[in-house]
Amino acid sequence: MSTGEVLLWVIFPYVAATTFLLGHYWRYRTDQFAWTSRSTQLLDRRVLGWASPAFHYGALAAIGGHVIGLCIPPSVTASVGISESFYRWFAGIAGGIAGLVTLVGFLGLLYRRARSPRVRLTTTRMDLLTYLLLTVLIVLGCWMTFGHTLFTSSPYNYRDTIAVWWRSLFYLNPNVKAATGAPVVYQLHAIIAWGFWAAFPFSRLVHAWSIPLQYIGRPYILYRRRYAAR
């Protein structure tokens, strides 16, 4: 392995993962008042009404597909009767739909932020960085799905390369050869993804961890006593 390969495929992922974990801890302990999405709905809600749900639901579906594809080896899916061809088509179609929905929603959010002066004033430098990383990730993801999986005569199976490297990180024995054996677009997607997760704790995206799950079991209306019970 060259020095560059060690930096990209061994050191950088672990540094990014450590930054992701410690960054959240530091942010929560020191900056809880800014642990928010900094909602701009009151400033401009016309585009937000459709762009935000499209981005969030599409992103959740895409993340779920990534987790399944990276965590579950081909041998496991084959053992339950799922052929590689069926898996490729199912994952490609589902991932393509999720990617397009995410892209449309994200472009709507970017357009809204660029078009509205009031919304634009609330944008920080960290927002610009995360938007840039997200744009590259989404575009590369769509490119890989449609250009390397669906509309090609020789589809590429990332589960034999990038997925092997990704799982090997958790075994503390990174398989660099598996990562460098993937096409360049897959390598770029993987490296930029780690950069995105390193920046995540310092952005407004931390609000993703503040889902009010307690609302699921809470009644619609809460009745409280005006006076203390005797």
How would you describe what is shown here?
It is built from nine helices and no strands. The longest helix is centred in the middle third of the chain and has 32 residues, at about 85-115. It has a single domain, classed as Up-down Bundle (Fumarate Reductase Cytochrome B subunit). The model has no long low-confidence stretch (mean pLDDT about 90). Helix 1 (about 5-30) packs parallel to helix 9, helix 4 (about 85-115) packs antiparallel against helix 6 and helix 6 (about 125-150) runs antiparallel to helix 9. The chain has helices at about 5-30, 50-70, 75-80, 85-115, 115-120, 125-150, 160-170, 175-180, 185-200.
CATH topology: Fumarate Reductase Cytochrome B subunit
Number of DSSP strands? 0
CATH superfamily: Transmembrane di-heme cytochromes, Chain C
Strand content: under 5%
| Count of alpha/pi helices | 9
